[in-house]
Amino acid sequence: MSIKRLSATDGIWLSLESPDMPMHVAFLLEFTAPDGDAARYVRRWRAQFTAPVPVPQPWNLAPVPGPLGRLLALVRETDEIDPLQHIHSRRLTRVGDRQELVELATRIHREQLNPARPQWEIHIVEGLAADRFAVILKVHHSLFDGASLMRLFTDTYSEDPEDRDTPELFSIGRAQSAGEPHPDAPAPAEQPLPNPLTSKPYSANPLFSSNPLRALLIALRGVLELVRGIGSAARDALRRRRGRRDLPQRAYQQPHSIFDGPITGGRDLSLRRYDLARFKQLAKAADCTINDIVLYLVGTALREYLGEHAELPQESLTAGVPMDLREQDDDRVGTRAGMMFTALATDVDDPLERLAAVRAYIGAAKGHMADMSPNAVIGYGLGVTLPWILGLSWGFDRTPASHPMGISNVPGPRNPLYWNGARLEALYPISLLMHGNPFNVTCVGYNGALHFGVLGASDSLPPMEYLTQSLDAALDELTALLLPAEERVMPSAG
């Protein structure tokens, strides 16, 4: 057994783990069996796993117990895993009842992963229909983020419905062994790659070289870039203390609302699926991005949701928007993401003016980070959230949060995927919640649809189904405002 250290970013997720804040993320995937017999498909698959099996990193990594292990983000490698501890069978009591499926996913999601084991579980669910079954994949955020999980699905599943040699999810490794980069080092790149904010290429950054001095200098450059981003966050913090309210990053600028304060382990989940074509139509008509449309819809839905079931603040609510900073060939363990902080224009009455304001807010946040290197962007996010994270790590659950909610849009595969012939019909993301951050909306694009997972703290917020109903209404309203009747694509919601 060997001991390894996770990166500073990934170590944060381990340090925050608690019964009220389990730090895992999940996906609910729905499949159609290739021969129409879901029970037989599941039975044959489960029969392969009756004895312990070896798995690669990160599937074999378990947290090192104790305060020192949490402080240093230490994990230990296990030689093999017991499938009975990680793969679980479930069955709906009411065949085809989608509400029961969502309630099951919610119960599974709110339970902590066993800290003595590698941090993942697979729950395979029967009873959707004779030919349908579901898989709930649950993994700790220190091992994967939403973007890296999407890459996992792409790497694992096939676009060929006749393929019967699909590897298992937990057989696809993100190795980080001796001779590979330190977890806090910058990601490797053989050729210049585009900055996700500007499309300008970063300079080539090969991490390994026959010249050890050059490799050391590259690693040092990555650390300096990280420190530069933290310094930029510190400067913005000083400007906020001096009363600046016009900074491009809207961290620590949310008004008091029902999103303030601590949470418990209670969770409420609601799911929606929309036709991606409609979002593309709306983005084209408004001359903006799909991500802008998502932010607008969430802000608009929040106006109705809070107006009817709580209290809408007079100032705009804000949100944290993750940015995937992984390069195309970066498959390392853990997370590599930055964070932008934007306003949602929930204080603007007119829908089109609200959309324009959302575009302006997120455009300013993107412009602020456009010239930063990926490590500087990560450093900025760490610097901004550090006071909040440290407070939570020390047990202060009322530490002011940098943002009251997360909103994430994760690109996914455009073509249908298959797992040994079983067609992947839908995949819904389920994120995590924290004290001061009790609400999250994550959407994933797949095969012509956007799949929304809306998660809230059930002890402090009205039911999430009210929010997703408002999301439906916001989408219909914007469609009526922007598109002529003959161009409107009807949404598929579920």
UniProtKB/TrEMBL annotation:
Pathway: Glycerolipid metabolism; triacylglycerol biosynthesis; Lipid metabolism
Keywords: Acyltransferase, Glycerol metabolism, Lipid biosynthesis, Lipid metabolism, Transferase
Biased composition (Pro residues): 184-195
Stretches assigned to the O-acyltransferase WSD1-like N-terminal domain: 6-294
Top EC class for this record: transferase
Reactions that this protein is recorded to catalyse: an acyl-CoA + a 1,2-diacyl-sn-glycerol = a triacyl-sn-glycerol + CoA
GO-annotated biological processes: biological process involved in interaction with host; glycerol metabolic process; response to hypoxia; response to nitric oxide; triglyceride biosynthetic process
Name of the protein described by the UniProt record: Diacylglycerol O-acyltransferase
Region (Disordered): 175-201
The keyword Cell inner membrane belongs to this UniProt entry's keyword annotation: no
Organism of provenance: Nocardia huaxiensis
E.C. numbers: 2.3.1.20
Molecular function (Gene Ontology), one example: diacylglycerol O-acyltransferase activity
PANTHER family: O-ACYLTRANSFERASE (WSD1-LIKE) FAMILY PROTEIN, WAX ESTER SYNTHASE_DIACYLGLYCEROL ACYLTRANSFERASE 4-RELATED
Sequence similarity: Belongs to the long-chain O-acyltransferase family.
Domain O-acyltransferase WSD1 C-terminal positions: 334-478
GO cellular component, one term: plasma membrane
